[in-house]
Design goal:
The chain is mainly α. The protein contains seven helices and three strands. A three-stranded parallel β-sheet has the order 2-1-3.
């Protein structure tokens, strides 16, 4: 199983080419994608055609494990203490992936801080900014 970040989903739904969108397409075909609830919320925050919304809602979702919010806060605090960028949404996405042992598919270089701090794994290397 893999999880995809919002930026990869947006690129995929927009038809943008890329290693990440190609990998997401294949993982969807193989039923190997799981949805992070934060990503689903971000995606559904924009107007989408009903068919796209319906498809997104069909992707199996990860559920928060006990003490999820505490771990997510501590993960983010550790990164912020290093004076690195750690947006709240990214911290929550990273913690879901860490808790469930699911690698993240993303093109967002901000997630590198979570790899260093929390041992977040990526499906593909993130391209240089």
């Amino acid at each position: 199983m893999i999880a995809a970040d919002t930026c990869t989903w947006i690129a995929y739904l927009s038809g943008e080419p890329g290693d990440d969108t190609g990998r997401l397409d294949q993982a969807l075909a193989d039923s190997l994608v799981t949805m992070v609830p934060v990503v689903l919320t971000e995606l559904l925050s924009a107007p989408l055609p009903p068919a796209i919304s319906s498809m997104l809602l069909q992707v199996p979702r990860l559920e928060p494990l006990p003490d999820f919010w505490q771990r997510a806060g501590e993960l983010r605090a550790g990164i912020l203490a290093q004076r690195r960028k750690a947006r709240l949404g990214d911290a929550l996405i990273a913690q879901f992936c860490l808790d469930h042992g699911v690698p993240l598919l993303t093109r967002d270089g901000d997630f590198r801080a979570f790899a260093a701090a929390g041992k977040l794994h990526f499906v593909l290397p993130i391209a240089a900014d």
